[in-house]
Structures are given as structure tokens and as C-alpha cells.
């Protein structure tokens, strides 16, 4: 990549890493499902004017993708971030969606992978087990479980997304925002009573976190990512995204006082190393096809 596009990619990585930090501050005042609903409500405002109608027969798959990613993945990932109280473990465990996606694609779509990819998948999951015994994680095991379930729904949504036709990334993001808002609000009303009523006393810091998640992380970050994947194969861009958890860990240490222990460093290295190996194998295969 030329320097210009590397800078754009770095901006994507930074915008997504900072989203962990700004969201963590906002989640101190706003419940996670309500936070997710507010994020998508703001995001839907500009994207509603850019939506394309899905082709006939695509609505059921589109709705399933929106529910998996927009409601279950984001709602549970923000719940995990709130429950964790740190940035390091959630940022790393979320990356387990990559090996999960490979396994689901093999199971549901019949996609095959070589033994090297299988070994990388095994290393990633073993890394989750290792970091799970770090004191930072053991103190709040619910966060690890929630993030693993969140990653599983992201993986399922990613596999289902492969069957979508006739929709660009902007339309997919816009439909996700529009379709997810109502179920998220319904879940919030049931599981987070009093959340809506308390919004009047929320500080500007929390509202800034909502705005950042909607406009910087989603609109700006995903917009730039869409530009880059139109210029380069997705497999060429994906390995660089492993910098997101690395930067998130650094932000957690700098601003939240995170103190990852040896097990988290070792387990994190195993998870990210496995994900990197999968990404590089995918890139190698895409180049071989050419």
C-alpha cells in the first residue's frame, strides 16, 4: 500500500481502538443495550438517505444479519465491556470471532481450510483459555462469557452476510442501524429498567461517547474501511486490524489503569497470533487464485 492508504488504515484502527475507551466511559452512566440503541439511532439519521432496497428474497437474510450483528453482537459486547471494567481482555477476546467465522463457514457453507488454518484456530481458542485464568479476567468471568457469545453472533452474522447480494457496505450499515433500534430499546426496557428515565441526568462525557460510537467509529471508521476494501482485497486489509486490540490495551493501561498479568499477555499473544495466521493464510490463498 502507498503511504497515503496506510495512513487511512491507521485512522481506521485508531478510531475503532478509541471507541473501546469512549464507550467504557459512557457505559458508566448509560446501560449497554440502551447505549447501543442510541448509537444506532444517531447513525441511522444520515444513512437513512443513502439506503438501497435489498433485492427480492434478501429481506429474511438481511434481517437475520441485522439482528445477529446489530442487536446481539453489539448489545452483548457493550455489556461485556461494562462488566469487565478494563479494555484489555474484551478487546482481545472479541478477535475470537475470526476463528469462529472460519469454523461456521466450514460447517454452514462447506468452506474448507488447510491444517495450518486449523492449527491457528486451535491456538486462538487455547489463548482464550489461558487469558481466562488471568486475575484481571477471573475477577469478572461474566465479561469473558458475554464477549465470547458476542463474538459468536458476530461470526454468524458475518457468515450470513456472505449470502447478501445487491447491497453495499453503506446500505448494510444503514439497515443494521434502522432494524436494530427497536429490538434494542425493547431489550433495554426489560433488562435495564429506569435507563431511559435516567438519560436526562447523563453527563456530556457519556453523550460524547454515544456520538463518537455513531459518527467516528461507525460512520467515519467504517466509511474509510469501505474505501480501502474497494481498493485492496479484504484479506490484505484484515491483518492490519489486529492493531485495534493492541492500541486498545495501550489506552486501557494509560487511561483506566489496566494492569494485564502474564496470563493475559500470553493468552492475548496466542489469540492475536492465531488470528494473524488465519488472515495471512486467507491472503495467500487469494493471491494464489489470481
UniProtKB/TrEMBL annotation:
It is a multi-pass membrane protein. The keyword Transmembrane helix applies. Its main location: membrane. Keywords: Membrane, Transmembrane, Transmembrane helix. Coiled coil: none annotated. Residues 7-131, 143-278 form the EamA domain. GO terms for cellular component: membrane. It is found in: Membrane. The chain crosses the membrane at residues 33-50, 62-81, 87-108, 120-138, 144-164, 176-198, 204-228, 240-257, 263-284. This is DMT family transporter. It comes from Lysobacter firmicutimachus. The lineage of its organism: Bacteria, Pseudomonadati, Pseudomonadota, Gammaproteobacteria, Lysobacterales.
Amino acid at each position: 500500500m502507498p503511504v497515503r492508504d496506510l495512513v487511512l488504515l491507521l485512522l481506521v484502527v485508531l478510531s475503532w481502538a478509541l471507541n473501546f475507551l469512549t464507550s467504557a466511559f459512557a457505559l458508566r452512566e448509560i446501560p449497554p443495550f440502551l447505549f447501543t440503541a442510541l448509537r444506532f439511532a444517531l447513525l441511522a439519521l444520515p444513512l437513512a438517505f443513502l439506503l438501497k432496497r435489498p433485492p427480492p428474497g434478501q429481506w429474511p437474510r438481511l434481517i437475520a444479519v441485522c439482528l445477529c450483528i446489530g442487536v446481539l453482537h453489539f448489545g452483548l459486547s457493550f455489556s461485556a465491556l461494562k462488566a469487565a471494567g478494563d479494555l484489555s481482555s474484551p478487546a482481545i477476546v472479541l478477535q475470537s470471532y475470526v476463528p469462529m467465522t472460519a469454523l461456521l463457514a466450514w460447517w454452514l457453507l462447506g468452506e474448507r481450510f488447510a491444517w495450518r488454518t486449523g492449527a491457528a484456530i486451535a491456538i486462538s481458542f487455547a489463548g482464550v483459555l489461558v487469558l481466562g485464568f488471568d486475575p484481571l479476567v477471573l475477577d469478572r468471568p461474566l465479561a469473558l462469557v458475554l464477549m465470547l457469545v458476542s463474538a459468536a453472533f458476530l461470526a454468524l452474522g458475518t457468515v450470513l452476510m456472505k449470502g447478501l447480494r445487491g447491497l453495499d457496505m453503506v446500505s448494510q450499515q444503514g439497515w443494521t442501524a434502522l432494524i436494530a433500534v427497536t429490538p434494542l430499546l425493547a431489550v433495554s426496557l426489560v433488562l435495564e429498567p429506569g435507563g431511559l428515565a435516567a438519560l436526562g441526568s447523563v453527563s456530556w462525557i457519556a453523550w460524547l461517547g454515544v456520538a463518537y460510537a455513531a459518527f467516528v467509529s461507525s460512520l467515519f471508521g467504517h466509511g474509510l474501511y469501505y474505501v480501502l476494501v474497494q481498493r485492496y482485497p479484504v484479506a490484505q486489509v484484515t491483518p492490519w486490524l489486529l492493531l485495534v486490540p493492541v492500541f486498545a490495551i495501550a489506552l486501557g493501561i494509560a487511561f483506566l489503569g489496566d494492569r494485564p498479568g502474564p496470563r493475559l499477555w500470553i493468552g492475548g499473544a496466542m489469540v492475536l497470533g492465531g488470528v494473524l495466521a488465519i488472515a495471512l493464510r486467507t491472503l495467500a490463498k487469494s493471491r494464489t487464485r489470481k
